Amino acid sequence: METNVQHQPNQSVSEDRSMKYVLSFVWMLLLTGASFAIVTMHLVPENMVIPALLILAMLQVLLQFFTFMHLDFKKSRLTAVFTFSGIAIGFICAIALWLIS
Amino acid sequence: MTTIIVLLVFAMFLGGIFTGGYTSRYVKRMEESSIWGWITTVDHKRIGILYLISGGFFFAVGGLEALLIRIQLMFPNAKFLVGDEYNQILSMHGTTMIFLVAMPLLFALMNAVVPLQIGARDVAFPFLNALGFWMYFAGALLLNISWLFGGAPDAGWTSYASLALPDYSPGPGVNYYVLGLQISGIGTLMSGINFLVTIINMRAPGMSYLRLPMFTWATFVTSALILFAFPPLTAGLFMMMFDRLFGSNFFSVTGGGNVIIWEHIFWIFGHPEVYILVLPAFGVFSDVLSNFSKKRIFGYHSMVFALVLIGFLGFMVWLHHMFTVGLGDVANSVFAIATMAISVPTGIKVFNWLFTMWGGRLRFTTAMLYASGFIVTFVMGGVTGIMLAVPPADFQFHDSYFVVAHFHYVILGGTVFGILAGVYYWWPKMFGSLLNEKLGKWNFWTFFLGMHLTFFPQHFLGLFGMPRRVFTWSPGYRLELGNYLSTIGAFLMLIGVIFMVINVLLTLTKGAPAESDPWDGRTLEWTISSPPPEYNFAQLPLVRGVDAWWLEKMEGNEKMTPSEPLGAIHMPNASHLPFVMAVGLFISGFGFVFQTSEVGAIGLIVVIATLFIRSFQEDHGHHIEPLELSEKGVNH
């Protein structure tokens, strides 16, 4: 069953929420555009390109987590469990790759 | 581009001729036809059947490829399939069997059973479920259409970089691999998320996590693995796609790329993938063994713990596929130890299965035969796995037929036996009739013996030095007998599959209707009619312990205690959008395979348009009223 099982959801709340999705989607597009701009238009010094890209990527990940993956609802412990085990697995893989290469 | 438009117009003409013209009644007639019903369905039971049919079809394709491989390797210096033809058949056999056979058939069982086992009326996102299926099917078709247009992928199922880059694979073959897997992989990711949400949110009242049936637990852990393992594949395939289509240099050494990165990314996905394949089979066996031993599964908590631990450790061992790359003794030792650690939870599970059978009232139905055959076969595959986990030994075994024998023992003996056991066990629930047990036993014994005859000699072929992936071998190295027996075994397996097909056809045409609980089952799916009504449960059941249905039976109850009064049931609406979106992705993928950006863009526009329509569609579903329930003969 899909999310709209409640038949009369509070109209203003649901509109607020969908506005939030649209807004963070726009922000993600802007961040992606900014990453492209940094690489193609030489906006920052050569040695700062990768750190700048990483910072933009981090911002985008946080945006993802808090709007689309509902980390802000603070309702379900499982959401946090899954998010953090995902981060942990990614972290371990990254460390291992860094150590062996 | 023009060719495609001509083909489209031609198809529309033919469609018009065969359906009686595009009149005003055309749309109505189309909506009433049963094919339209199957295309637009969002019912998890019907999607399960769609997965079963398409997985079965590709099983035939992949099996045919396997037979061709074995025919070529039957005698030394054979000229049946030489060089590139062999490479294509071999690559497609691996890719097809893993991504287009094993995974969809497991999804077939999950779709058919998991919502019933947790006492739910559907999955959490029925629309996504349909979309996942159609995307898998679009990707699968795209991969296999390569046989007709431009040649199939020929860089192996792992598609290692440098070999898979344009310098060495100039044709469109690997493009098909990249785009086909990309599309079907995203579908798989969706289905995985869907099952996670379903199991977390839609359990019936009283169905706590530690009362879930083992198959549901296995599905849960598998879906978590899919969630974490498929994004690396998606990322890797995108990099490969950009390297091949748009001239980037992620993996190309001449442009400063690194070929080893592809191996890392592929196996960071690929190792969890083999657990994605085998964990649902573990779940099937746990349910089948406990049912036909008439006992609760031995050590339920340790079984759950072992599943989760295997799932976690599955991410920590990918390097054991790369021992010979030369990453150093420390890296090899660490990953060797991690790999051996997985044998501990797996051992827990094997002993628990044996203790479940110990002292039970055993009934050797076909499903039970597959389950017992699995224990033997899988332990043999596991032992060779431990041998391969030892780096010094692996330097000898690497890229030899020993590895081929090992992974066929675990994948055939684990996943395929699991799927077959599950199909025999849940067939009545999916189709409402029982498969013939006599033919089933013929099917089991020919398939089981054929499997061992095919792959047991391959251990020795590997030890005698026969390399994998090579299309021929020379006489005089003691390889003759092994290869001969192996091919005979492959044909024995073919006979087994033919028994299965006959059995299915006989059952579909003349099968007697099955009762709701033909196996004297223990879990919730056996409390409702076979096949279940569209809404599964007229009233959601109240679950009071592990093996909920068995508990009620032991207390002399005829049915589950309902947990809610009879009321209107909310159901999702059927939708054609998933199919349209998959068609769009297929067109787009086909365009990008031939680097025709216009066609690719047209497909993507279709996808985005469907996304847009779906995003702003007010689709609240419909209700089935209690009055209609009683008309449909529900006796609650």
UniProtKB/TrEMBL annotation, chain A:
Transmembrane segments: 21-44, 50-71, 78-100
Pfam families associated with the record: COX4_pro (PF03626)
InterPro entries, per the entry: Cyt_c_oxidase_su4_prok (IPR005171)
Any one GO CC term of the record: plasma membrane
Subcellular location: Cell membrane
Keywords: Cell membrane, Membrane, Transmembrane, Transmembrane helix
Membrane topology: Multi-pass membrane protein
Source organism, top-level taxon: Bacteria
Keyword Transcription regulation annotated: no
Claim: Membrane is one of the keywords in the record: yes
Protein name from the UniProt record: Cytochrome c oxidase subunit 4
UniProtKB/TrEMBL annotation, chain B:
InterPro entries: Cyt_c_oxase-like_su1_dom (IPR023616), Cyt_c_oxase-like_su1_sf (IPR036927), Cyt_C_Oxase_1 (IPR000883), Cyt_c_Oxase_su1_BS (IPR023615), Cyt_c_oxidase_su1_bac (IPR014241)
Pathway participation: Energy metabolism; oxidative phosphorylation
An annotated GO BP: respiratory electron transport chain
Pfam families reported in the protein's UniProt record: COX1 (PF00115)
Bilayer-spanning residue ranges: 6-27, 48-69, 89-114, 126-149, 176-202, 214-241, 261-285, 297-318, 330-355, 367-390, 402-427, 439-464, 484-506, 576-593, 599-616
Domain Cytochrome oxidase subunit I profile, chain residue ranges per copy: 30-544
Catalytic activity: 4 Fe(II)-[cytochrome c] + O2 + 8 H(+)(in) = 4 Fe(III)-[cytochrome c] + 2 H2O + 4 H(+)(out)
Gene3D superfamilies registered for this protein in UniProt: 1.10.287.70, Cytochrome c oxidase-like, subunit I domain
UniProt keyword annotations, A-Z: Cell membrane, Copper, Electron transport, Heme, Iron, Membrane, Metal-binding, Respiratory chain, Translocase, Transmembrane, Transmembrane helix, Transport
Record localization: Cell membrane
A cellular component annotation (GO) from this entry: plasma membrane
EC number in record: 7.1.1.9
Biological role stated in the UniProt entry: Cytochrome c oxidase is the component of the respiratory chain that catalyzes the reduction of oxygen to water. Subunits 1-3 form the functional core of the enzyme complex. CO I is the catalytic subunit of the enzyme. Electrons originating in cytochrome c are transferred via the copper A center of subunit 2 and heme A of subunit 1 to the bimetallic center formed by heme A3 and copper B.
Family (UniProt): Belongs to the heme-copper respiratory oxidase family.
Protein name according to UniProt: Cytochrome c oxidase subunit 1
